[in-house]
Amino acid sequence: MSSPYPHIEPYVRPEPTKEDLEYAPLAALDVSKVPDWSKPEGKEELVNDLRRAIEEVGFFYVVGHGIKDLDVRRQLALADAFFKQPVETKLQHPCEFEVGKYFGYRYPKEFYGAEGRLQSRTEMLNAAKDTPVLEDEYIEWDLLKPHRAEIKDFQQQVHSKILTPVLKLFALLLELPETYFSDPHAFDQATEDHLRYMLYSPYSAEEYAQIGGQLSRGHTDFGLLTILFPQIINGLQVQTAPGEYKWVKYIPDHVVVNTAEVLTYLTGGFVKSTVHRVIRPPNDQAKSNRLGLLYFSRVANDYDVAIAPSPLLKRLGLYKVDPNPPKGLEWGRERVKHSHLKKIIEIEKPYEAFKFRDGQYEVKLDYDSPAVESTPIKPSTAIAA
């Protein structure tokens, strides 16, 4: 039987902003400096680059990865086609937040404000890794079924060309065996990793004012690392100092990577999980849909969430032994339930700390995310890409 979806329209990127924005000074890691990971060439230099990157912001670009822009645009085309479907079609496979599962479609059911007067317009599709050990978690959507092979190929590219090299660099930075993190988190291992298609639909000026201009409040991510492919509609900001946010610049072929909460925990706080948010795009992009392509690396299901026995961490006094650490799946599922079972987002109310095992484990979520009015936008001429 022929597919009812034989053709996906190519994705055409909108124009970049011409606003004069204050950008965060993100370092760039060129992973092509290590042409062969079986040899030492380039590794020391790249580890030093990573050290400087995480000392400055905790967000950094990865370049030289070898993923073609044609493949990125193809995934954006699939994402665009998916979100254009009727809501009832997308809701055939919703995320099961009540059990801590993130795979599936997240309908924008949250409401901003104590009175719940404005519905969120953020949608996402989270696709599990297409690998035999996760066969029961993989969801086949009618629209995407004919494209399963290319989606899997893209997931594998992200994993092998970006995630694995970066995990190896973190291991080397911590003076651990190179594959300490990458082997337990290989593509064929059971993890809650997912490829995400994400859509922020615009609000009116009055609605933006109601939510303080914030599409996503200041937060940190749950897992090990987050990978964001070049996002031409601005909106992402990183916290560079308490209460101070700067924009993340769109640069073609520059993939944004940020460190997340579990990596912070595994390193005894040595690697910080940087607070970031998504706000109203610049004036010349404010009426555009903001379509995103991301990959989230989660700690392996059977991995002990405990501080790594790193010589560096031991010298710094950050290492301690946990006799009964939680497994990655337990940590991840509890974290998802804590964050996503709420139906009301009160933009002025502080986050509640994430606690589980009767408070034995706690992640404090005392983020400072002021309204956008404190970060003015200055019209100007076109900026260089």
Number of strands: 17
Give me the strand/helix succession: EHEHHEEEEHEHEEEEEHEEHHEEE
Shape: globular
Enumerate the strands of the largest sheet in spatial order, edge to edge or round the barrel.
1-2-12-9-14-7-6-3
Overall number of structural domains: 1
Main beta-sheet strand count, sense and barrel state = 8 strands, mixed
Q: What's the alpha carbon Rg, rounded to whole Å?
A: 20 Å
- Counted by DSSP, the helix tally is 8
Question: In percent, how helical is the residue content?
Answer: 10-25%
Binned strand content: 15-25%
CATH architecture: Sandwich
Output the structural class.
alpha+beta
| CATH homologous superfamily classification | B-lactam Antibiotic, Isopenicillin N Synthase, Chain
First-to-last CA distance: 46 Å
Give the mean pLDDT: 90
Would you state the CATH class? Mainly Beta
The oligomerization state is: single chain
The CATH topology name reads Jelly Rolls
Give start-end ranges of low-pLDDT stretches.
Answer: 373-385
Structure summarized in a few sentences:
This protein has 385 residues and is an alpha+beta fold.
Notes on the structure:
The chain is of the alpha+beta class and 385 residues long. The protein has one domain (27-374): B-lactam Antibiotic, Isopenicillin N Synthase, Chain (Jelly Rolls), CATH 2.60.120. It is 23% helix and 19% strand. It is built from eight helices and 17 strands. Strands 1-2-12-9-14-7-6-3 form an eight-stranded mixed sheet. Strands 8-13-10-11 form a four-stranded antiparallel sheet, with no helix packed on it. Strand 16 (354-356) and strand 17 (361-363) form a beta hairpin. Helix 1 (43-56) crosses helix 4. The longest helix is centred in the middle third of the chain and has 26 residues, at 148-173. It is globular, with a radius of gyration of 20 Å. The chain starts with 26 loop residues before the first strand and ends in a 22-residue tail after the last strand. Residues 373-385 have low confidence and may be disordered.
